[in-house]
Amino acid sequence: MQVLNNVKRALLGDVTQEKENPILERRYEEEPYSEPGKTEEFRKKILNASMQNLKSMQSKKNRPKAMAYFDKIVTGSREEEIKKSGKKVLGYFCSFIPEEILYAADVIPIRLCAGSFDTMDVAEGILPRDVCPMVKSSFGFKVLGLPLMELCEIAVVPTSCDAKKKMGYYLADYMPVWMLHLPHKKDSDKSVKLWLEEMYDFKDAVEKFAGKKISKKALEDSTKLLRKRTDAFRRFLELRKAKLIPISEKDFLLVVYVSFFDDAERWTKNVSLLCDEIEKNIERGIGVHSKDTIRLLLTGSATIWPNFKILDIIEKAGMAIAVDQSCVGTWHLYEPVEVEEYSLPGLMQAIAERYLSPSICPCFTVNDDRFDNLTELIKAYEVDGVIYHILRLCQLFDMEAETVKKILEKENIPMLKVVTDYSKEDVGQLSTRIEAFKEMILIREEGEK
Ligand code: SF4
Ligand code: SF4
Question: Check: CATH 3.30.70.890 for 290-337+343-448?
Fold first, then answer.
């Protein structure tokens, strides 16, 4: 039969019907399901959590005025705008999905990694309890039919950690899911080739989804547009190096979180305005923490809006996060697409490289780039200590903690490892440990004088 088909193809060309989408997970069964009557109740709960966060953030002395734009977007104004645009919307997880390809096809991308405690319960009825809170929270958004998940016609899930992989499998019962196959090793020739092929499959699938071909010109334009976004972001990160910390970690993460679903051009413009204001504040000696505040680096599992529990505790203890090493913070937008040749293959090659090689996600077998980056950040941001944040049941970050501990011992930088989730149950215990960590840093500094 196969021989006959091959002969038929050789004689007539490809007579099969449209080629199958190689990245589509096929379990999706028609209608997305949502709990009747629950959507509105949970929508309000989520909005309340955001409002509470904003209230406390807005009360902070010297908060840049330009943050008002990000406050407005996070409390819902973008949802209506996306609906009115009539454009196709694609949701995705993690930081491996090339937005350049989506912008080139006029598709709106939304990163769906969620930090809401309220949506976890309903997910626990379907997923096992012992899954990381981020995955349960994100999945709950779909089950409850909540924004922004509901705007997405398709979800793209990379095979990064096991929790994400299997969430993709279950999510495919509720909506069409594309699984992107991420290699386990990122720097072998084989992996790079595989990933490039995956990027081409992704581009083909996006073209079918959007109903339009992606031209070289469109891809070049979108790459240049997002390059400007990266440039603005890098400027923002540079300003964070100031002695007098110019912006809180909460505000920084809010700005990055808004980029998950905002219009890239407008976001870039507003980050530039924010940077202008911060620059002036630095010149005038205005910061959001006093000069002698202990400067920390936050690394490990993602801290996603509105779950800022760990940041609240650190702030209450009188310390500041000077910089983070997180896929929902510093890493999300940092790397630019470096194009050597503005042809379609040249652009695709550069895009594939951008989303694989520089990644410091712990899902790769060897992750030395993360450790090198950590020591660079410690020096550049003059950090006094490191908080290693692990979301409960996140094995990857937990397993890398030992290596980080050894590296930091060599650098003579103290580290506190905290394992937590999105609930408030452990606030007291965490506060005590973080207070003790602060005391230890103070004693060390006193001893070094
Ligand atoms: S650390 Fe990696 S697997 Fe985890 S959320 Fe970030 S990109 Fe995804
Ligand atoms: S926190 Fe850990 S387990 Fe959860 S999605 Fe991220 S890498 Fe995976």
Answer: no
Sign, Cα dihedral of 127, 129, 132, 133: positive
Cα 91 from Cα 110, distance rounded (Å): 5
Query: In this structure, which residue's CA is closest to atom 2 in ligand 1?
Result: 361
Residues near 303 by beta carbon (within 8 Å), at least 6 away in sequence: 115, 253, 310, 311, 324, 326, 328, 329, 389
pTM of the predicted model over 0.90:
yes
- Residue 104 three-state SS: helix
Strand partners, 419: 390
- Fold of the 20-64+85-213 domain: Rossmann fold (3.40.50)
Residue 192 has which token pair?
């790079």
327 lines ligand 1 (CB under 6 A): yes
Low-confidence ranges of the chain (pLDDT < 70): 1-20, 26, 28-36
Mutation pick for ligand 2 pocket among 138, 157, 164, 298 (CB with most ligand atoms within 8 Å): 164
The CA-CA-CA angle for residues 149, 90, 19, to 5°, reads: 130
pLDDT digits (tens, 9 = 90+) for 176-210: 999 999 999 998 999 999 999 999 999 999 999 99
